[in-house]
Amino acid sequence: MGDTPSTLLRNWITRQAPPPAADWFDGQIDKLLGDPAQKTFDIAFGMAPRKLGKDDLVLSAEDLAAADAARSGWNPAQWSIDVAARVCFLIALSKDPSQPFAARFKDLHRTADLGELLALFSGLSLYAAPETLVDLAAGGLRTNIKAEFEAVAHRNPFPAEQFAINPWNNMVLKALFVGVLLEPIQGLDERANPELARILSDYAHERWAADRLVSPELWRCIGPFAGDEYLDDFRRVVAHGKPTEKKAVALALTTAPPSAGKDELCAALSAYAEMIASGALTWRAIADEMLDNSLAITRKLNFEVEMTR
Fold first, then answer.
1. What pLDDT shows up at residue 293?
2. Angstrom distances, CA of residue 6 to CA of 2, 42, 94
3. Residue 115 C-alpha from the chain's centroid
Protein backbone atom coordinates (compact mmCIF):
# COMPACT_ATOMS: atom_id res chain seq x y z
CA MET A 1 0.00 0.00 0.00
CA GLY A 2 1.38 3.42 -0.96
CA ASP A 3 1.74 6.50 1.20
CA THR A 4 -1.32 8.53 2.06
CA PRO A 5 -1.43 12.32 1.53
CA SER A 6 -1.14 12.80 5.30
CA THR A 7 1.96 10.61 5.45
CA LEU A 8 3.59 12.42 2.56
CA LEU A 9 2.84 15.85 4.00
CA ARG A 10 4.22 14.83 7.37
CA ASN A 11 7.40 13.49 5.80
CA TRP A 12 7.96 16.56 3.62
CA ILE A 13 7.39 19.02 6.47
CA THR A 14 9.63 17.25 8.99
CA ARG A 15 12.29 16.85 6.29
CA GLN A 16 12.35 20.57 5.58
CA ALA A 17 11.67 22.19 8.96
CA PRO A 18 14.45 22.80 11.51
CA PRO A 19 14.43 20.18 14.30
CA PRO A 20 12.56 22.26 16.93
CA ALA A 21 9.84 23.19 14.43
CA ALA A 22 9.64 19.63 13.06
CA ASP A 23 9.30 18.29 16.60
CA TRP A 24 6.52 20.80 17.32
CA PHE A 25 4.67 19.79 14.15
CA ASP A 26 4.98 16.06 14.86
CA GLY A 27 3.74 16.62 18.39
CA GLN A 28 0.72 18.60 17.21
CA ILE A 29 -0.21 15.89 14.72
CA ASP A 30 0.01 13.22 17.42
CA LYS A 31 -2.12 15.32 19.78
CA LEU A 32 -4.73 15.93 17.11
CA LEU A 33 -4.92 12.28 16.14
CA GLY A 34 -5.39 11.39 19.81
CA ASP A 35 -7.73 14.26 20.64
CA PRO A 36 -9.45 15.98 17.68
CA ALA A 37 -11.18 18.48 19.99
CA GLN A 38 -11.64 22.00 18.61
CA LYS A 39 -9.20 23.56 21.11
CA THR A 40 -6.44 21.11 20.14
CA PHE A 41 -6.97 21.88 16.49
CA ASP A 42 -7.23 25.65 16.94
CA ILE A 43 -3.84 25.83 18.66
CA ALA A 44 -2.08 23.83 15.94
CA PHE A 45 -3.88 25.59 13.07
CA GLY A 46 -3.19 29.07 14.40
CA MET A 47 0.46 28.49 15.35
CA ALA A 48 1.64 26.82 12.11
CA PRO A 49 3.11 29.92 10.38
CA ARG A 50 4.83 31.11 13.56
CA LYS A 51 6.42 27.74 14.22
CA LEU A 52 7.21 26.62 10.66
CA GLY A 53 7.47 29.86 8.70
CA LYS A 54 5.99 30.54 5.28
CA ASP A 55 8.71 29.32 2.91
CA ASP A 56 7.74 27.37 -0.18
CA LEU A 57 7.37 23.66 0.41
CA VAL A 58 10.43 22.14 -1.27
CA LEU A 59 9.33 19.24 -3.47
CA SER A 60 11.18 17.20 -6.07
CA ALA A 61 9.74 15.67 -9.20
CA GLU A 62 9.64 12.37 -7.31
CA ASP A 63 7.66 14.01 -4.49
CA LEU A 64 5.10 15.35 -6.94
CA ALA A 65 4.80 11.94 -8.58
CA ALA A 66 4.21 10.41 -5.14
CA ALA A 67 1.51 13.01 -4.48
CA ASP A 68 -0.32 12.09 -7.67
CA ALA A 69 0.02 8.40 -6.87
CA ALA A 70 -1.40 8.94 -3.38
CA ARG A 71 -4.32 10.98 -4.66
CA SER A 72 -4.87 11.30 -8.41
CA GLY A 73 -4.62 14.92 -9.49
CA TRP A 74 -3.16 16.18 -6.23
CA ASN A 75 -0.47 18.75 -7.05
CA PRO A 76 1.04 20.66 -4.09
CA ALA A 77 3.76 22.25 -6.23
CA GLN A 78 2.78 25.78 -5.22
CA TRP A 79 2.17 25.17 -1.51
CA SER A 80 4.05 26.85 1.33
CA ILE A 81 5.15 24.84 4.36
CA ASP A 82 2.54 26.46 6.63
CA VAL A 83 -0.25 25.68 4.15
CA ALA A 84 0.98 22.08 4.00
CA ALA A 85 0.96 21.80 7.79
CA ARG A 86 -2.49 23.30 8.08
CA VAL A 87 -3.84 20.96 5.42
CA CYS A 88 -2.35 18.05 7.37
CA PHE A 89 -4.19 19.25 10.48
CA LEU A 90 -7.41 19.65 8.50
CA ILE A 91 -7.19 16.13 7.08
CA ALA A 92 -6.98 14.78 10.63
CA LEU A 93 -9.91 16.96 11.71
CA SER A 94 -12.02 15.83 8.75
CA LYS A 95 -11.82 12.22 9.96
CA ASP A 96 -13.26 13.04 13.40
CA PRO A 97 -16.71 11.40 13.55
CA SER A 98 -17.95 13.55 16.42
CA GLN A 99 -18.93 16.50 14.20
CA PRO A 100 -19.52 16.85 10.45
CA PHE A 101 -16.41 18.34 8.89
CA ALA A 102 -18.47 20.62 6.63
CA ALA A 103 -19.77 22.41 9.72
CA ARG A 104 -16.25 22.86 11.08
CA PHE A 105 -15.03 24.00 7.68
CA LYS A 106 -17.80 26.61 7.54
CA ASP A 107 -16.95 27.90 11.03
CA LEU A 108 -13.26 28.14 10.15
CA HIS A 109 -14.01 29.91 6.87
CA ARG A 110 -16.09 32.53 8.63
CA THR A 111 -13.14 33.90 10.62
CA ALA A 112 -10.15 32.78 8.54
CA ASP A 113 -7.39 35.09 7.39
CA LEU A 114 -5.92 34.70 3.91
CA GLY A 115 -3.31 32.13 4.93
CA GLU A 116 -5.96 29.99 6.60
CA LEU A 117 -8.24 30.30 3.58
CA LEU A 118 -5.45 29.08 1.31
CA ALA A 119 -5.08 25.97 3.43
CA LEU A 120 -8.82 25.32 3.65
CA PHE A 121 -9.28 25.44 -0.11
CA SER A 122 -5.96 23.94 -1.23
CA GLY A 123 -6.74 20.68 0.58
CA LEU A 124 -10.32 20.28 -0.64
CA SER A 125 -9.66 17.03 -2.49
CA LEU A 126 -7.89 15.46 0.51
CA TYR A 127 -10.55 15.81 3.19
CA ALA A 128 -13.03 13.11 4.17
CA ALA A 129 -16.45 13.40 2.48
CA PRO A 130 -15.41 16.06 -0.06
CA GLU A 131 -18.87 15.98 -1.62
CA THR A 132 -20.19 17.80 1.48
CA LEU A 133 -17.93 20.78 0.74
CA VAL A 134 -19.18 21.66 -2.75
CA ASP A 135 -21.26 24.69 -1.75
CA LEU A 136 -18.48 25.97 0.52
CA ALA A 137 -15.92 25.63 -2.25
CA ALA A 138 -18.19 27.41 -4.73
CA GLY A 139 -18.56 30.19 -2.19
CA GLY A 140 -14.81 30.54 -2.06
CA LEU A 141 -14.82 31.37 -5.76
CA ARG A 142 -16.84 34.54 -5.18
CA THR A 143 -13.71 36.32 -4.00
CA ASN A 144 -11.74 38.84 -6.03
CA ILE A 145 -8.55 37.86 -4.18
CA LYS A 146 -6.51 35.98 -6.74
CA ALA A 147 -4.62 33.75 -4.30
CA GLU A 148 -7.85 32.59 -2.66
CA PHE A 149 -9.51 31.93 -6.02
CA GLU A 150 -6.49 30.00 -7.27
CA ALA A 151 -6.47 27.81 -4.15
CA VAL A 152 -9.81 26.41 -5.30
CA ALA A 153 -9.38 26.57 -9.06
CA HIS A 154 -5.70 25.86 -9.78
CA ARG A 155 -3.91 22.50 -9.59
CA ASN A 156 -6.84 21.14 -7.62
CA PRO A 157 -8.86 18.10 -8.75
CA PHE A 158 -11.83 19.06 -6.57
CA PRO A 159 -13.76 21.36 -8.98
CA ALA A 160 -13.59 18.96 -11.95
CA GLU A 161 -14.69 16.05 -9.77
CA GLN A 162 -17.34 17.72 -7.64
CA PHE A 163 -18.82 20.76 -9.39
CA ALA A 164 -22.02 20.50 -11.40
CA ILE A 165 -22.07 22.24 -14.77
CA ASN A 166 -23.23 25.68 -13.57
CA PRO A 167 -20.61 26.23 -10.84
CA TRP A 168 -17.96 24.80 -13.15
CA ASN A 169 -18.85 27.22 -15.94
CA ASN A 170 -19.06 30.11 -13.50
CA MET A 171 -15.57 29.27 -12.20
CA VAL A 172 -14.03 29.33 -15.67
CA LEU A 173 -15.69 32.64 -16.52
CA LYS A 174 -14.73 34.13 -13.16
CA ALA A 175 -11.10 33.11 -13.78
CA LEU A 176 -11.10 35.44 -16.77
CA PHE A 177 -12.69 38.24 -14.75
CA VAL A 178 -10.19 38.07 -11.88
CA GLY A 179 -7.24 37.72 -14.21
CA VAL A 180 -5.95 34.22 -13.50
CA LEU A 181 -4.78 31.72 -16.07
CA LEU A 182 -7.02 28.90 -17.25
CA GLU A 183 -4.21 26.44 -17.96
CA PRO A 184 -3.73 25.31 -14.31
CA ILE A 185 -7.43 24.41 -14.00
CA GLN A 186 -7.57 20.61 -13.96
CA GLY A 187 -10.13 18.93 -16.21
CA LEU A 188 -10.57 21.97 -18.43
CA ASP A 189 -10.76 19.88 -21.60
CA GLU A 190 -12.77 17.01 -20.09
CA ARG A 191 -15.37 19.40 -18.64
CA ALA A 192 -15.77 21.47 -21.82
CA ASN A 193 -19.46 21.87 -22.66
CA PRO A 194 -21.65 23.72 -25.18
CA GLU A 195 -23.08 26.10 -22.58
CA LEU A 196 -19.61 27.21 -21.50
CA ALA A 197 -18.63 27.75 -25.14
CA ARG A 198 -21.67 30.01 -25.59
CA ILE A 199 -20.94 31.94 -22.39
CA LEU A 200 -17.32 32.53 -23.36
CA SER A 201 -18.18 33.54 -26.91
CA ASP A 202 -20.65 36.09 -25.53
CA TYR A 203 -17.96 37.34 -23.16
CA ALA A 204 -15.51 37.73 -26.05
CA HIS A 205 -18.06 39.71 -28.05
CA GLU A 206 -18.66 42.00 -25.07
CA ARG A 207 -14.94 42.61 -24.79
CA TRP A 208 -14.63 43.35 -28.49
CA ALA A 209 -17.61 45.70 -28.40
CA ALA A 210 -15.84 47.65 -25.63
CA ASP A 211 -12.64 47.67 -27.73
CA ARG A 212 -10.89 45.39 -25.27
CA LEU A 213 -8.81 42.34 -26.05
CA VAL A 214 -9.61 38.74 -25.13
CA SER A 215 -7.46 36.19 -23.30
CA PRO A 216 -6.07 33.70 -25.84
CA GLU A 217 -6.88 30.83 -23.46
CA LEU A 218 -10.61 31.41 -23.90
CA TRP A 219 -10.60 29.68 -27.30
CA ARG A 220 -9.53 26.39 -25.72
CA CYS A 221 -13.01 25.94 -24.23
CA ILE A 222 -14.73 26.84 -27.51
CA GLY A 223 -12.68 24.66 -29.86
CA PRO A 224 -14.61 21.39 -29.41
CA PHE A 225 -17.85 23.17 -30.32
CA ALA A 226 -16.48 25.40 -33.08
CA GLY A 227 -19.19 25.03 -35.68
CA ASP A 228 -20.11 27.85 -38.03
CA GLU A 229 -21.08 30.40 -35.34
CA TYR A 230 -17.77 30.16 -33.47
CA LEU A 231 -15.63 29.87 -36.58
CA ASP A 232 -16.53 33.49 -37.28
CA ASP A 233 -14.95 34.37 -33.94
CA PHE A 234 -11.84 32.47 -34.97
CA ARG A 235 -11.76 34.29 -38.31
CA ARG A 236 -11.76 37.59 -36.49
CA VAL A 237 -8.72 36.53 -34.44
CA VAL A 238 -6.90 35.29 -37.54
CA ALA A 239 -7.57 38.60 -39.28
CA HIS A 240 -6.84 40.98 -36.42
CA GLY A 241 -5.27 39.08 -33.53
CA LYS A 242 -1.80 39.12 -32.05
CA PRO A 243 0.54 36.14 -32.65
CA THR A 244 -0.25 34.52 -29.30
CA GLU A 245 -3.98 34.77 -30.04
CA LYS A 246 -3.49 33.16 -33.43
CA LYS A 247 -1.50 30.33 -31.90
CA ALA A 248 -4.33 29.75 -29.44
CA VAL A 249 -6.87 29.56 -32.23
CA ALA A 250 -4.64 27.12 -34.12
CA LEU A 251 -4.56 24.91 -31.02
CA ALA A 252 -8.30 25.23 -30.47
CA LEU A 253 -8.96 24.14 -34.04
CA THR A 254 -7.29 20.78 -33.35
CA THR A 255 -10.36 19.87 -31.28
CA ALA A 256 -12.97 21.41 -33.61
CA PRO A 257 -15.36 19.17 -35.55
CA PRO A 258 -14.54 18.64 -39.25
CA SER A 259 -15.83 21.31 -41.63
CA ALA A 260 -14.81 23.29 -44.67
CA GLY A 261 -14.50 26.36 -42.48
CA LYS A 262 -12.10 24.57 -40.17
CA ASP A 263 -9.97 23.49 -43.13
CA GLU A 264 -9.86 27.08 -44.38
CA LEU A 265 -8.72 28.39 -41.00
CA CYS A 266 -6.14 25.64 -40.55
CA ALA A 267 -4.68 26.58 -43.91
CA ALA A 268 -4.46 30.22 -42.83
CA LEU A 269 -2.66 29.14 -39.66
CA SER A 270 -0.46 26.51 -41.28
CA ALA A 271 2.67 28.23 -39.95
CA TYR A 272 1.86 26.73 -36.55
CA ALA A 273 1.08 23.20 -37.71
CA GLU A 274 4.60 21.84 -37.19
CA MET A 275 4.84 23.40 -33.72
CA ILE A 276 1.59 21.71 -32.73
CA ALA A 277 2.60 18.36 -34.21
CA SER A 278 5.97 18.39 -32.41
CA GLY A 279 4.43 19.30 -29.07
CA ALA A 280 6.21 22.67 -28.95
CA LEU A 281 2.93 24.58 -29.06
CA THR A 282 0.66 23.60 -26.16
CA TRP A 283 -1.71 25.40 -23.84
CA ARG A 284 1.08 25.47 -21.27
CA ALA A 285 3.25 27.22 -23.85
CA ILE A 286 0.47 29.71 -24.54
CA ALA A 287 0.21 30.50 -20.82
CA ASP A 288 3.98 30.90 -20.54
CA GLU A 289 4.03 33.18 -23.56
CA MET A 290 1.29 35.36 -22.09
CA LEU A 291 3.36 35.86 -18.97
CA ASP A 292 6.79 36.10 -20.60
CA ASN A 293 5.65 38.70 -23.14
CA SER A 294 3.61 40.69 -20.65
CA LEU A 295 0.41 39.80 -22.47
CA ALA A 296 -1.35 39.17 -19.19
CA ILE A 297 -1.23 41.59 -16.30
CA THR A 298 -3.61 42.15 -13.40
CA ARG A 299 -5.14 45.57 -13.09
CA LYS A 300 -5.56 46.41 -9.41
CA LEU A 301 -8.82 48.25 -9.91
CA ASN A 302 -10.84 45.62 -11.71
CA PHE A 303 -8.75 42.43 -11.60
CA GLU A 304 -9.22 41.80 -15.32
CA VAL A 305 -6.67 40.35 -17.70
CA GLU A 306 -5.43 42.96 -20.14
CA MET A 307 -3.48 42.24 -23.29
CA THR A 308 -0.76 44.85 -23.54
CA ARG A 309 1.21 44.14 -26.67
1. 67
2. 12, 18, 12
3. 17
